[in-house]
Each structure stands twice: as C-alpha cells, then as structure tokens.
User: What shape does this take?
Amino acid sequence: MCGIAGIFNRDGRSADLSVLEAMVRMVDYRGPDETGTFARGPVGLAHNRLSIIDLAGGHQPMDCDGGSLWITFNGEIFNYVELREELLRKGHRFLTRSDTEVILRLYREYGLDCVQHMNGQWAFAIWDAEKRKLFLSRDRLGIRPLFYAMAGQSFVFGSEIKVLFAHPGMSRELDLEALRQTFTYWFPLPPRTPFRGIAELPPGHSLVVDKDSQSLQRYWQIDFSRAEAAEAGDTAGDEKAAERLRELLYDSTRIRLRADVPVGAYLSGGLDSSIVAALAQQCVGSSLHTFSLAFEDPALDESRFQQEVVQLLGTEHQTIRCTSHDIGEAFPEVVWHAERPVLRTAPTPMYFLSGLVRENGFKVVLTGEGSDEFLGGYDIYKEAKIRAFWAAQIDSKARPMLLKRLYPYLEGIQKQSPAYLQAFFRVQPGAAQDPFFSHVPRWSVTSRSHAFFTPELRSEFHSQDGYKDLAELLPAGFSSWGPFSRAQYLESAFLLPAYLLSSQGDRMAMAHSVEGRYPFLDYRVVEFAAALSPRMKMRALNEKFLLKHAFGRMIPASVRRRPKQPYRAPDAVSFFDSATGEARHPYITDLLSSGSLRAGGIFDPAAVDKLISRIKTGKATGFLENAALVGILSTQLLIDQFIANFKERNSHATDRTRSAAVCN
Assistant: This one.
C-alpha cells in the first residue's frame, strides 16, 4: 500500500510542486520507502511508496508511452501476472515487473473499462495527457480510500483527508449532516465525509475529470437479486457449493500471497481468520507468521482459541496484549488516522496490532474480514430472523427467549421483560416488510445519542426525514429482495467500507505502514456468496453454515463450534478509571470540559456533564452511553486536530529526503 496525492488546476495554472510535496508529506507513514512527484502543466501527481512488488522497478509516479500516461497508485492488483501475459500477447511491452505498469497498459488497451479486468484493491489516478483528462478509480469493495475536493479552481485528491487539507485553498469545517449520519449509522453516507466540501469516491466507482466537468461512474455493484431464487439445496447441493467455495477461497488466498516481501496473517481465534491462516499455510508450504490481540478483560479475550489454531497449524506466532489504559492513551492518534468520529474504541487495538506486525519486520498481512458480511456470520442477521419468527406468533412466551440466548454478553438485554424486548426490537406483525427491518433497532438506539448535541442541532436533526438519505442510495429492486439479503446488503455496502475497512482496517494498518489483504473480499468470492440462498449461509441459527461445511476439518473443532463472538474492546473504562472515576489522561478532561464543548459548538455541555457523572459513578454501562462518550470524545479530538490546531500538527509532519522530482 501507499499514499497518493494530486492536483489538477482546471484553470490551466501550472501545478505547484511545493504544494504537492506538502500534501503527500502528510501521509509519509503510508509509504516510508520512497517518495516521488511529477508535475507538468496544470497537473501534479505525488506518491509515497510502501515497496511490496518489484522493489527495484516499481517507482511512482510512473509513466508509459513517452509520458502520454502517468499514474499514482495505492494498492495491489493480485492478478497482474495473468494480465501481464495477456497484454504481452496483445503486443504491449513492459519495462518493469510491477502491477502499476500493468494498470497503465490495461488503460491503454481498454480505457475506462480497464477496472473490469482487475482483481485487487486499489485507489489510483491516471493523467491522460492526450485526452487532457484525469481518471480516478476505487476498488469494488472500498478497501482502499480515495478523497477529492475542489480548492478554488484546483481539483485535489489524496489517500486521506489530511492530504487535501495541506492544500492552501482548502477550508476545514465539519459537515453537520455527516455528524448526524455518523451518530445514527456509525458512518457518513458516501460520498459525504465528516468535512464540508470533501467527498470520498464510493466503492465500485470511477471519476473522470477534465477542465470543465467531472463525471462519476459506477462500474460494479453488490447484487443479491439471485439469492432468494437460488435453490435451497440438499446434501449434494451443499457439497457442490462447498467445493466451489474451497476452490475460490484457495485461489483468492494464493494470489494474495504474491509479494516480494514476507506475508503474515492476523489470527483472531475466530473461524474466518483461522481458515485464512490455514489456507495461507497450505499455499506457502512453510511456517506462516501470525499475529494476535489479547485483552486483560476475560470477556473480550480470545487467546485460548488463538493458541489452539497456532498449535494445529504450527505458525510462528506473536501476541500483543492491550489494556484499557493503553487504549485511552493511544486514542488521539487513532482519531488522527481515522479522520472521522468513531463510536467504539475497537480501532485502537487494531492500531496496536499493526504496530506489532511492523515491529516484526512485516509489511503485509492477510485478514479474515468480509466473511461475516457475505457468508452470513453476524448476530444482526440472527436477530432479524428471530424478530420475524417471534412476530409470526406475537403472543409466544418462548420466542422472546431466543433474543436473550443470542446476546448472553449483554447484561441489559438479559434483565428485560418480553414486553420491553418487543418494543425495543420492534417486533410486530408485518414489520419484516420494512426495507430497513434488520437495522432499525441498532440505528434507533444509536440515534438516541443525538440528545447530546446542542439544542439547535437537535432541532435541526429532528426535522430530518427518517432514513430517506440512505434509501436514496439503495439499488433498484432492493425492496423485492428477501429480509436476509437486504440485511446483508446494508452491512456489506455501507458498514463494511465506511467503518470496518476504513476506521478499523486501512487507516489503522497504514498508520504503521502495513498492508492488509482480504481473501474473502476477492470479487469472485463475493459474487459467488451473494448468489447463494440464505439457507446456505445460515441454517436455522447456525451462522456461516457453508463455510463451516467447506473448511471445518482444517481448523480446531472448538473454533468451528464456538458461538460467534463479536470483536469488542473496552470503551468508557478506557477513558475513566472504574475504581476512582478519574480521567485516565489529561486530554480527556480538557476536551470534555464545558469550555471546550462550547467552543466546539457541537455538544450540549450540560448533557455531556451528566453523561460523564454517570460514567464516573458506574451507572452508565450500556451500549448507548458508551457509544455516546466515544463519539463525543472522538468528535472533540477531530475538531482539535483538524480544525483548531491542524497547522500546528502539520508543521510537525516528518520532513524526510525526497526522491528526485520530475518537473516539466
């Protein structure tokens, strides 16, 4: 992975090389191995390189055909070997062994449709000097980030928002509607970002920019339309599907091991990462290096299962143990890299984990993300099935108990009466026809955190029309899909790229110059899984049925049979000591003071003070209060780091030796 940046002055002014260098310097950590810049006329491209493929020849920005095409590219094209051979047969000639040059040649051969041939994770910009157009693209699932904005007459883009803020023409203001969405859905809806005027290129989209216009084009979309019509399958059907899944996932893992540096793997102790580690071990034919998180809280710790997988596979294993104090201490740095409010501290341990990987000399790790979304692993899918099942017999005494069995780790749920559960989970006849049926309970709880905004913002947000903003982004035919497929789409099209692959994924890994690779997010695996019937994914309440059937013998029985444990990290206790009620770190007291809250203008100091008092006295233990605290604190950090003190932080950015710039 790398860091990219660029400028296109649509009024014809020459690109300022010093501005370009300042922009890319903001993300030195994304590519500490090498930096390059290119400027010609109104266009400038910049690149920080994390050298993984073709270490000697993959320098960027890269050109071909005498400089008629230039590219700055963040990511990997995993099928570049096959594509290179295909292009050689078509008469193309290569000067490097890099996947970067393959993209340039693909563009030369297929134009904007080049992305249809690529299997990978990418964010890139190609300057077509002949057509005087800039072509930007982001991978199908949104693994790699790409942001853009207009700074006066300059179109600017980069891997992170702070890259754009380094341009002197950019203003820095919070987008209040993005805040409302974040405190409802956990993320702003694409292309919106937390900052006014800055857009994120949505997954599966490309953008073409010339001096007069810009055109956003979708080239791929997740499609669950065939799932409901798929044959439910008997034993023979199960085995056929299992064999196909084995073939696809093995090949996906194999090509994601392509690198000129060592590749390791994350190991959570769950089903998905264990399968990926087992497949990687098969592919490399030697001992794999694996890396894990451990927690001081036994309710969160999965070390036992991690060790069982390590013993079975014989991997070279490293573990980092993080405490609540550690999480609170590192949280400001996490927000700096996430560049958005977060409602959980879960990204912080992932920040520590990537640091462990880097300390051990690794730049690349395989991870298990994506399986839960596409193969039916989440509790929210079970929850929706139970709610619909209960609604069919609304007076049942036994069916509400299934919800308590689903969430044994949530004390608040265990204490509640069936009447409360019915109201909380919105169990009523016909409710399952609501297109947002699966997610409404989650969003309703999260949106109660709006109570901590100022009265003015609360009034403004109250006037918003429900989930209309999200409904406008849904694909045609969404309402005709079954409830399970609709739930899968909402998770995979929105939460996955906007939070899991961003705040917990790319941003935490690249903070330590580590590239994550995701075998379950190979588009071939995704398209296969999306077309499976729901019964293949979740049989009764047995999650990831087909995955377990296909790979159960490769992993310990205890891992295969264990109940799904969601990844969680300590929240409020990371900021306030549970014994004394005192703030663990000075920045917490400062940013949550009445003065700071009034200066920020987002949150009601009186409401926040009541929340903090409840937390200090141990009365606030539920999801809402924990999420509200983390969200408020991360928003205050965002204001402090990106609006109030960005120039000061910018002045401390690492200034290292730059490689020779190409400037004409």
Q: What stands out?
A: The two ends are 27 Å apart (CA to CA). Residues 572-650 form one domain. The chain has three domains: 2-174+199-220, 221-566, 572-650. Confidence is low (pLDDT under 50) at residues 654-664.
